[in-house]
Amino acid sequence: KLYIGEYYQDENKRHTCLFGKKLMVVGHQKHATPEERSKYNSIDDFNYPLEDVKSIEELTDGTWESWDPSDRKSYLQFGRMLTGDTRLSMDGMVDLWKSIAFCNYLQVPDINLADRQGRDEDYLYEMAKPIFLDKLLEAQPEKVIVWGVDTPSFKYIKNALGVSTLEHEFQVTFNNRKIDFLNIPHPCRLPQGGYDVVITKIKEFLEK
Question: Helix or strand or coil: residue 53?
Answer without folding.
Answer: coil
